[in-house]
Specification:
Structural class: mainly alpha
Number of helices: 5
Helix content: 40-55%
Order of helices and strands: HEEHHEHEH
Largest sheet: 2 strands, parallel
């Protein structure tokens, strides 16, 4: 699916993509579970692998480890000549040509400030 989405975004004029991570809380999980397009079993499996029961989620967000998928999305976006960043603040930095205030801004390697 991500290939179709990235191609359509590029064709519509997008120059880059934020390939971040998924974090779930009780509210986020409930919304994802109601969605017809999300593989909730994959999320359940990841939560159980870190001894987190899906029905015991609270307000705090839990990271879902999906590095393989992020790498695949990033590689495909790069093959489309899109700029790939990991955080929304990086996208803002790239778009404005100004580094964010974080000392370890991930966008610093993308643009010669």
């Amino acid at each position: 699916d991500y290939e179709d989405v990235l191609r359509a975004a590029r064709d519509a004029g997008a120059e880059g993509v934020v390939v971040g991570s998924l974090r779930v809380s009780r509210k986020i999980y409930r919304r994802l579970k109601q969605s017809k397009t999300v593989d909730i079993e994959a999320i359940d499996s990841q939560l159980r692998s870190i001894d987190q029961s899906p029905d015991k989620l609270g307000e705090n967000q839990v990271d879902i480890q999906d590095e393989g998928l992020r790498q695949a999305v990033s590689a495909y976006a790069e093959s489309l000549k899109m700029v790939v960043v990991r955080r929304a603040c990086c996208a803002n930095a790239v778009g404005s040509q100004l580094p964010c205030r974080k000392p370890k801004c991930l966008a610093r390697s993308l643009i010669p400030w």
